[in-house]
Amino acid sequence: MSDTRRRVKVYTLNEDRQWDDRGTGHVSSTYVEELKGMSLLVRAESDGSLLLESKINPNTAYQKQQDTLIVWSEAENYDLALSFQEKAGCDEIWEKICQVQGKDPSVEVTQDLIDESEEERFEEMPETSHLIDLPTCELNKLEEIADLVTSVLSSPIRREKLALALENEGYIKKLLQLFQACENLENTEGLHHLYEIIRGILFLNKATLFEVMFSDECIMDVVGCLEYDPALAQPKRHREFLTKTAKFKEVIPITDSELRQKIHQTYRVQYIQDIILPTPSVFEENFLSTLTSFIFFNKVEIVSMLQEDEKFLSEVFAQLTDEATDDDKRRELVNFFKEFCAFSQTLQPQNRDAFFKTLAKLGILPALEIVMGMDDLQVRSAATDIFSYLVEFSPSMVREFVMQEAQQSDDDILLINVVIEQMICDTDPELGGAVQLMGLLRTLIDPENMLATTNKTEKSEFLNFFYNHCMHVLTAPLLTNTSEDKCEKDNIVGSNKNSTICPDNYQTAQLLALILELLTFCVEHHTYHIKNYIMNKDLLRRVLVLMNSKHTFLALCALRFMRRIIGLKDEFYNRYITKGNLFEPVINALLDNGTRYNLLNSAVVELFEFIRVEDIKSLTAHIVENFYKALESIEYVQTFKGLKTKYEQEKDRQNQKLNSVPSILRSNRFRRDAKALEEDEEMWFNEDEEEEGKAVVAPVEKSKPEDDFPDSYEKFMETKKAKESEDKENLPKRTSSGSFKFTFSHSTSAANGTNSTNSKPVVAQTPPASSNGSSSKTTNLATSVTATKGSLVGLVDYPDDEDDDEEEDTSPRKRPRLGS
Fold it and tell me: Known InterPro entries for this protein (predicted)?
């Protein structure tokens, strides 16, 4: 149906008394069998689906407003509106409604819903009282007029009759002439009556009266009447504010006089609703619904008219991005766009899409990049609001822009880095702006709203970009406040050794908490990328320094970060935690907290309870072997005793399996007792023959333990059906010195000293280690190790380990391994 006369938007009024757009379609009035009567049908212009099916009820009150609106209530709290593109279409449907209800199409409202007693009362009244008789408009009658207006507000039918009387006699203009006379005579009593009269007329909720009251000719006098509230000792100076203080700023001259008038009118009516009129009580909240609609539809018109004027918008953008534009002018331009975007929220989704696409095409994002870096706080705040509208509308559009930008610009001036820096540099003690920016960043890095198409995956492309170009900016404050040299202390369980280095500044603590919240989100949603980053930067160790902060909320943020990591039950993370002895700061915090029963205590206990319930064997063994003595006195929960029980049960199981394996197959990886391990260490380091082997550790994105650690004894395992589980292969083993040893299996070709043709590409290498047969320090747990002949390599190097790295001898009969 291409007839534009019948083109309408369907609106419903929500609980907040705001109009929600339900879509655009074409309206028709047809007899619907199911509803047993003539009905209004609206079918969507996009797909023909039914947007509205509403029977024209003979008792429903329909209102016609502003020539192109029809408003009615379907149920007690369900208001509907049809906004027509053309007046002719509105008139046509209005005639159909009036025809069904037996009304004259010249009326503005078909009827009112009134209660039975009132209906009976009016039925008894003679027909001659069709309209209310208004007193003559004179100074001495103002009190009588005020009483009349106030008295009708409780009766819908009397409100309607009074509205018709006011409209027919041009009464409002006469009242406003009286207002000028009263003000000249300083007649305070008369002015107080006029306040009650004008306020009462607004509460009649009649669009035709609003059009008179809010015209250029009358609106300032209406505002004047509303200044004289009898409850106030002195009248307010609203007119002075509207004419002198509130200046209409044209960033670019608006030549369309109708548009200028509409903007002025909307601002003033909004001012009346928000500032002048008191907040309506529960009984009055529906009295101003038409006023809300009046403002809403005005805003729709303003945005549509501005958007259609391409020359105007192009000129605005040209000035915004011009380096010659002075700061004051640029501030005005940014504020214009902020208000423009706010008005655009009244548009229906289809038109809003077109609106933001127009802004994007004209270059809103590069313009924002410039203004977000300005010193002016007001400009930055407005730019942030505009950016939030864009991110909310289309995160993908913003992501595409920053990835294209990265190919031409340095990291420092990338839009996302500008946003991160604004977040870090927020001067507000409560970090209000930083919280808003953090929410926007989270939306941008959320994989849930990333698109995947046949030829490209936005998720992988954008996350690669973010971790390469932006993550270092985001984590800089965290790494600065937890510098590495301050983290490496003696391993004394129960000591409060780091308390002096944690940031005591409340604002810094708030900022670090925000950053940790974002990183915790990354752990949950980004898996592979964040895993690489955490291991390369040894990030968890740095975060856990904050467990000693005097700000408990920050310690809890650090703990939440670790809890999220452990919650993934990823053995790569588990080995990283045990290898780095990263439970120590958590246990220190628990012990330092003493007997206090607070959130920190509960959160730490819950972390260990999770490990017990989920039976994470590698972590259980590490905790029991290293910390049980410090924890066994905690008896108000059974968590730690439960961990000990789990550990002992697993140990028994391992011993039983070990006894069932033929002696020829026994190797150090099946042993769990310290004595056997010590003997094996001696055999390992006293090997005379030096041979080079290969150590293969799969890239971090692989999750299966079989892929991570290929088994050199696979042929034996197949014949004996004794293939070991991941936990048996990779559980950390105690050495005589109290440290842990990690045993990594390798491919058969490596054991034979041959080159593997399917080697993984080198990601990072450490220098070859040398052995003196007496002690050994090796590289920390690697995220990926190359399978090349002649070296043991890892991704994560620690500076204090490099000088002491020692070369280990290998034998074709033994599996090369990385120990600590």
Answer: ARM-like, ARM-type_fold, EVH1_PP4R3, P4R3-like_central_dom, PH-like_dom_sf, PP4R3-like
